[in-house]
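We emphasize that the prediction below concerns an isolated chain of 207 residues; any contacts that depend on oligomerization or on bound cofactors are therefore not represented. The input was used exactly as deposited, without trimming of termini.
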Amino acid sequence: MTRIVKKPDVRRKEIVDAARKLFLEQDYESTTMNALMKGLDIGKGTIYHYFTSKEDLLEAVVADLIDEDMQNKQRVMESPEVQAMDAVGKFRVLVTAPTIAEDSAPILDELHRPGNTIMHTRQLGRYLSLLAPMYAEVIREGCEQGTFHVDCPLEAAEFLLAGVQFISDVGFYPWTEVDLLRRAKALPSIVEAQLRAPRGTFDFLAG
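Result of the prediction step, given as a token string:
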């Protein structure tokens, strides 16, 4: 039988896709590297050439989920319907667009385990670094339209996203429901103040 040789990037993506599928079907803890090797019909040397451990593979899966999420958001933002909107409309689309957490929660929950704190922080930083420019572009457009008044759109987006993520992520700290509720109620006015937008512009964030 002729041995099939695949390009490194193709083989790596194949392993990541298979791991993602298994992590969702039987959860991360129950998935073994041997199960992946068997399912892909590859040897130990091949899988460990690309990933040094199951934890390393988990991080690759999370990174892949982030990239997919960014691509989906980009497609939504580039659609004719969204392009026809003003900056506030586009901001709302970004906020309400489906996220990776909605269909990949079992995988992302693994980041909340104590042993994965560094991985969680690293991938969250990567996520914010990719997402912030999308918000910055909308903020910049809002400034041109006279709705927002911001000197540093990218930095404003980074501070807003990082702040919201940290004070709403119970994986970083066990915030109470009371904490989360009061912050959610305050969010519209805080974003308005940050972007110097008219009162009521971001009332939809309270929903």
